[in-house]
Amino acid sequence: MSIQPPPIEVKAELNSVPLVIKQLFISVFIISLLMIVVTYLYHFNRLENDIYLNGVLTDAINLLILICIFAFVQTSVVAQRSYLFLSIGIFLWSVGLTFDFLDELVFQPIWVGIYIEDIARTIGMLVTGFGLFLALSDLAKTREQLEEELKTDVLTKAYNRRYFYHYVLQNQDTPHSIVIVDIDHFKAINDEHGHDVGDQVLIDFVSQCHKALDPHILFARIGGEEFALFVPTEDQEILSQTCQQLLCLASNVMVTPSKTLSVSVGSAIKRATETFSNTMKRADQALYLAKNQGRSRYVHKP
């Protein structure tokens, strides 16, 4: 697994359809259908010789369903592009069905059925289908974004504590080590230079780690200035190299033009029958020793 995937850019802007546009579409929809009915009955007012109730009811129900779908689209929060295609498509489809419904009641010239009823219905169905495709695509993108936000830290874009614990518990059978990193004197950085500087220090440190660490390492922010790593190895030499690398990466972060960042690091290799909480506890004990021994160092807990 990579350290951190690039942020997903969701193009769907779910609140982008102004109310005035929705009101305009609703007005056009209602007025157009009413005008079609009135104009149609004015010009073609000769009743069919045989009116079949099942045909009338079927067309009426179909038209009513489309009107309900149109109303649902108007009250839903969808991206503007999807909204436009869905609204226009359902409108054209409804126009075709309106002519189809009237055809069951009164005599209709052949040209109306061919050039208006069928064409409007067919184009409407195609446009509606494309609008539905766009809406489902936007929904999928939004879901991806929400899933990404659930497992990443808002400030640093590292994985968060929740996802780290979930991932490690799902991979207990994989040989691995746990590393805990704590930024030295972080409270003093916030107090002396402000929280904006403290936030930037966190962002810069995570950025350094994302660029340099092995892509198979899971890196997460599990507390304010505390980070954890899932390192898929039981080799203490490889683990030591990773931890020493963290110390070097921290020194690349500038707190001020004359002061660099330092961190304390503790690690523990998972034992065969050990639980995740116990491995974390030993790594935390190693971190405690690193702090007590003067900080800016790495300690391993056998």
Summarize the helices and strands and which ones pair or pack.
Layout: H1 19-43, H2 53-75, H3 80-103, H4 110-151, E1 159-160, H5 161-170, E2 177-183, H6 186-193, H7 195-212, E3 218-221, E4 226-231, H8 236-251, E5 254-256, E6 259-260, E7 263-269, H9 276-292, E8 298-300
Parallel strand pairs: 1-3, 7-8
Antiparallel strand pairs: 2-4, 2-7, 3-4, 5-6
What can you see in these coordinates?
It is elongated, with a radius of gyration of 32 Å. It starts with 18 loop residues before the first helix and ends with a strand. The longest helix has 42 residues, at 110-151. The model is unreliable at 1-15 (pLDDT under 50). 61% of the residues lie in helices and 11% in strands. It has two domains: 19-148; 159-300, Alpha-Beta Plaits, CATH 3.30.70. The strands form two sheets. It has a six-stranded mixed beta sheet, with helices on both faces. With 302 residues, the chain is an alpha/beta fold.
